[in-house]
Amino acid sequence: MLSFLQRIGKSLMFPIATLPAAALLVRLGMEDMLNIPFITAAGNGILGNLALIFAIGIAMGFAKDGNGAAALAGAIGYLVLDSGIEAINKDVDMGVFAGVIAGVIAGMLYNKYNDVKFPDFLSFFGGKRFVPIITSAVMVVLSFVFGNVWVYPQAVLDSTANWILNGGELGVGVYGVLNRLLIPVGLHHVMNALIWFDFGTFTTEAGDVVRGEINRFLNGDPSAGYFLAGFFPVMMFGLPAACLAMYAAAKKERKAAVGGMFLSIGLTSFITGVTEPIEFSFMFLSPLLYVVHSLLTGVSMILAFVFDVRHGFGFSAGLIDYLLNYNIAENPFTLIIIGLVMGAIYFVIFYFLIVKLDLKTPGREDEEVEEGSAESESGDYDAKAYHYLHALGGPENIETLDYCTTRLRLEMKDREKVNEKELKRQGARGVMKLGKRNLQVIVGTSVEFVADAMKKQMEGGHHLPEGMQDEKVRSVKEEAEEASPRKVKEEDFQMPLNGKVLPLDEVPDEVFAQGMMGPGFAIDPSEETFHSPVNGKVLQVFPTKHAIGLELENGLELLIHVGLDTVKLDGEGFEALVESGQRVEQGTPLLRVNLDFVKANAPSVVTPFIFTNAEGATVELLKKGYLEKGQKGVMRVEEGGLGNE
């Protein structure tokens, strides 16, 4: 049941995405703005047909491939259901529920019948064309059922709505707490849909009846906006203050690493009202803080109600919506005062709890669980998708893949195969298990691009994208692996530049030092140009130019990662001298580095040399200390052993 409700919550993101456009049109056309009535009417054209839009969006979300045939079936299903119910009992008004029901059923019917086959004389009606037909038939039956029995659940819903809408500060407070508490399981969208789009009615001057808190507020209902106003202090002030508290409580040596992240997600919350990047940064590390945050959200809702503040949004309670709807709000400036108070409360409580209880918020993690890698912050979604799929046990381990605003929603065949540590190392903010097979991976606001890249690789083959690995070369290599032992002889590797050779366990980074990336060693360089130590091919020049991947002639892959945490330099101080796919020989110039700049702006210039696909092989250092460019006999790789010697 939880998984089913989550799919509804995820699917609601399609129609909810139309709200900013609708709200903007409604506001711009009003008298205090552009005073162009037809623009307001155009926006209300969206808001007045939310049930139909929900049916279309949810059907697409439920469909296994998001096909337009499911969307058409959702629309037809809603029209049949709504018209049938009206013919039976005009007093029955299912509101957005009719759209939700039609969308869910249309999506499920699409998944079952999209490839159905009929005899030749009926073949035209087979496959996807059959989905709207069967949906119509099912909706005829449901319209008869709901037309006769919906009066009873409608009475219950009406009484619930009346309690919430007329419950004063208790009603808005309970809603605020539940709104946040349901985010981890993704069910807040389901509850929001009821409050925002269904509860309450208002008749406009033109005689149109509108439903839901957002629609009523935008159309001038003097009783609407109480269930929206209290979010502004939290999203514009409270959560950014929580970021400041987590930064202040971070370990001194980690402040620089987490400061940029906190600034970015804090500004995102303040300006746009998108809070999940902040909430997921501490939700799993410290559930106690998240419970406190939920309670404080309820407090903010109550304060806004007590001070008679009505405000609303079309997208979320950030600065943009605050300013856009300022002129139609009631006592909007009071939200700034409440926000400053809530910000101070958030900072004090968060800082006190983090320090007093030693909560492991970002920047305070124990060394053994600190995350982060050079690749985890890359904007290369194809590369990130590759690593995510690998950490999830491969495409064959994924039953279904969906996403919402900030998270991947997955149903796994075997959840035990999931490598949570690797997911977090690749940039995931958290991993949440639901039921026996469901999994959510919190990615952030780039989740759509990551999910799309993952789906492409699941359909087209799980492999590193162009520039990281050539599939033809890979296939040849895989065929020859059994015949070609993965060895590197003493003469096959030469020093790429002057520098001090170090064993891998002396690298001041846990990921490399423990061999998590693979066996290898490191060099502390004393000159600026890195040359190829081997004969082979360039697999990848990273976009930030801080690392280069090489493929040796025997198929072994060598990663040269210049410095530690240098991805954050965004390419400054690095000059690539080769391109992906280029053949190289020992001594070919690969990369030029401004060592003085890197030393001043990165934790270290120590450069790991990692054999990333040498599982079960031993990297033996034959020489250590200072060596000169071109010198051989430095190391060798042998099959077997424990990885490093």
TrEMBL record:
The record's Pfam families line, in alphabetical order, gives: PTS_EIIA_1 (PF00358), PTS_EIIB (PF00367), PTS_EIIC (PF02378)
- The answer to whether the entry has keyword Coiled coil is no
Organism per entry = Halobacillus faecis
Q: What is the lineage of its organism?
A: Bacteria, Bacillati, Bacillota, Bacilli, Bacillales
Cite the PTS EIIB type-1 domain residue spans from the record. Answer: 382-464
The name on file for this protein is PTS N-acetyl glucosamine transporter subunit IIABC
Which GO terms label this protein's molecular function in UniProt? kinase activity; N-acetylglucosamine transmembrane transporter activity; protein-N(PI)-phosphohistidine-sugar phosphotransferase activity; protein-phosphocysteine-sugar phosphotransferase activity
Instruction: Describe the location of the PTS EIIA type-1 domain by residue ranges.
Output: 509-613
User: Keywords for this entry?
Assistant: Cell membrane, Kinase, Membrane, Phosphotransferase system, Sugar transport, Transferase, Transmembrane, Transmembrane helix, Transport
Q: Work out whether the entry's keyword set contains Disulfide bond.
A: no
| Cellular compartments per GO CC | organelle inner membrane; plasma membrane
The record, for InterPro entries, names: Dup_hybrid_motif (IPR011055), Glu_permease_IIB (IPR036878), PTrfase_EIIB_Cys (IPR018113), PTS_EIIA_1_perm (IPR001127), PTS_EIIC (IPR003352), PTS_EIIC_1 (IPR013013), PTS_Glucose_EIICBA (IPR050429), PTS_IIB_1 (IPR001996)
Query: What are the recorded Gene Ontology BP terms?
Result: N-acetylglucosamine transport; phosphoenolpyruvate-dependent sugar phosphotransferase system
TM segment ranges: 36-62, 69-88, 94-110, 130-152, 226-249, 256-274, 280-305, 335-354
